[in-house]
């Protein structure tokens, strides 16, 4: 199924969904297949591969499979079983660098005692 509009599924569907908009799986929704979309909201059950910018698994929502997304939100009581990978890792902030040479300076300063007399 190829779509350029939002999709709401509250029943059973087997196959692949491609949507340039939002896909919402309702509480009674059961998807067996792959989903490629911009935003996915899961309140029902999905078995398969998911590729989306943002995936939200709501309370009582369940995903069994793999998720590739830039943002993954799992609410309390939401269930995810499978593998997750982050899209666009290069856009994430870099880890701060650690200069171990400055560590010895800190220890030297701690061992010195200074007394000021006024």
UniProtKB/TrEMBL annotation:
Under the heading InterPro entries, the entry gives: BacA/B (IPR007607)
Entry superkingdom = Bacteria
Q: Report the family membership.
A: Belongs to the bactofilin family.
| Protein name, entry field | Polymer-forming cytoskeletal protein
């Amino acid at each position: 199924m190829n779509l350029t509009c939002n999709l709401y599924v509250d029943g059973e569907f087997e196959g692949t969904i491609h949507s340039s908009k939002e896909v919402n799986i309702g509480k009674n929704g059961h998807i067996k297949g792959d989903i490629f979309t911009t935003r996915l909201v899961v309140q029902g059950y999905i078995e398969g591969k998911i590729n989306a910018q943002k995936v939200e698994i709501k309370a009582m929502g369940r995903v069994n499979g793999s998720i590739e997304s830039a943002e993954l939100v799992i609410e309390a009581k939401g269930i995810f079983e499978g593998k997750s990978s982050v899209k666009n890792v290069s856009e994430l902030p870099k880890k701060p660098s650690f200069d171990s040479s400055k560590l010895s300076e800190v220890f030297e300063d701690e061992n010195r005692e200074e007394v000021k007399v006024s």
